[in-house]
Amino acid sequence: ETGVTQTPRHLVMGMTNKKSLKCEQHLGHNAMYWYKQSAKKPLELMFVYNFKEQTENNSVPSRFSPECPNSSHLFLHLHTLQPEDSALYLCASSQERGGGQETQYFGPGTRLLVL
Amino acid sequence: GQNIDQPTEMTATEGAIVQINCTYQTSGFNGLFWYQQHAGEAPTFLSYNVLDGLEEKGRFSSFLSRSKGYSYLLLKELQMKDSASYLCAVMDSNYQLIWGAGTKLIIKP
User: Fold this and answer.
1) Which of A82, B12, B79, B90 is deepest in the core (most CB within 10 A)?
2) Closest Cα of chain A to B44: distance in Å?
3) Does residue B52 surpass a pLDDT of 80?
4) pLDDT tens, A5-21?
5) Of the candidates A42, A97, A107, which has its C-beta nearest B42's C-beta?
6) Which of B99, B103, B104 to mutate to test the interface with A (most CBs of A within 10 A)?
7) Taking CB atoms and an 8 Å limit, are B43 and A107 in contact across chains?
8) Rounded CA gap, A24 and A3, in Å?
C-alpha cells in the first residue's frame, strides 16, 4: 500500500537539532493530518489541513511547525525538541474534512527518538 | 469529556473467534471506525458504522448500538496474521476523530 508515504521512517535527533518530516499522499485527497502516537495512549491529533489551509492546531507546542504547500504534501518541521517528544508521528489523509468523506488513510509513520 | 474505552490486551487461539468491545461517550456522533495496526506499521481502515446493526466484511464484522454507546469488532477463523492492535475511533459532532488507546490482540497457535 503506497497511498500515503512518509520519510524518514526512523529519526534520531538531539535536542538542539532541526529536522523535518515529510508526508505525501497519492489518493487525490484534500485533507491531511499529523498525529502523535505514544505507547499505550490514544492517537493525539496535532494539526489538520483542509484544501491547504490549516484548520486545527490542538495546542501543539511551537517547537512543532507544520507546512502544507499543496494538497498532496505535508511537512512537520521540528526544532529544539524534548525527550518526551519521542514517539511515532503518523500522517493521514481523507477526501475532505467535515464533508462526510472522512475515512482517514495513514502513512507508515516516522519513529522519532529525541536524545 | 469525551472518552473511548476498549480492553488493553486480549489473547485468543488460532482458528477461534474473538470479540473486541468499544464503549464511547462523545459530543455528538458521526460514525465509528475500526482500524488494524500491526507493530511498526500504519493503521489500516477496517470498518465504518454509522447506523445501528452489524456490518460484515469477510472474516471481520462490526456492530454498533448508538443508544448504548457501544460497538464491537468480531474476528472469525483467527489467523496468526491477525495479531495486531485494533483501534476504535468515534467521529464527534465537529467531525473530529476521538481515539481509543487500542486493544492488542495476541493469537496463539
Assistant:
1) B90
2) 7
3) yes
4) 999 999 999 988 899 99
5) A107
6) B99
7) no
8) 8
Q: How high is the pLDDT of residue B40? A: 85
Cell of A14: 538531539
| pLDDT given for residue A101 in this prediction | 58
> Which chain A residue shows the shortest CA-CA distance from B45?
A105
- Say if residue B95's pLDDT is above 90: no
Interchain CB contact of A104 with B (< 8 Å): yes
Output b/e per residue, A63-74; b: 16+ Cβ within 10 A. Answer: ebebebeebbeb
C-alpha distances (whole Å) from A7 to each of A20, A74, A83, A93, A114 are: 9, 11, 20, 15, 17
pLDDT (tens digit, 9 = 90+) per residue, A90-109? Answer: 999 999 887 665 899 999 99
**Distance (Å, whole) CA B97 – CA A102:** 9
Helix (H, G, I), strand (E, B) or coil at B81: helix
Best probe of the A interface among B5, B96, B103, by most A CBs < 10 A, is B96
Identify whether A8 is preceded by a cis peptide bond (ω within 30 of 0): yes
- A112 CB neighbour count, 10 Å cutoff: 21
Pick from A26, A71, A73: which is nearest to A53 by CA?
A71
Q: Is residue A64 over pLDDT 80?
A: yes
pLDDT digits (tens, 9 = 90+) for A46-57: 999 999 888 888
Are residues A104 and B45, on separate chains, in Cβ contact within 8 Å? yes
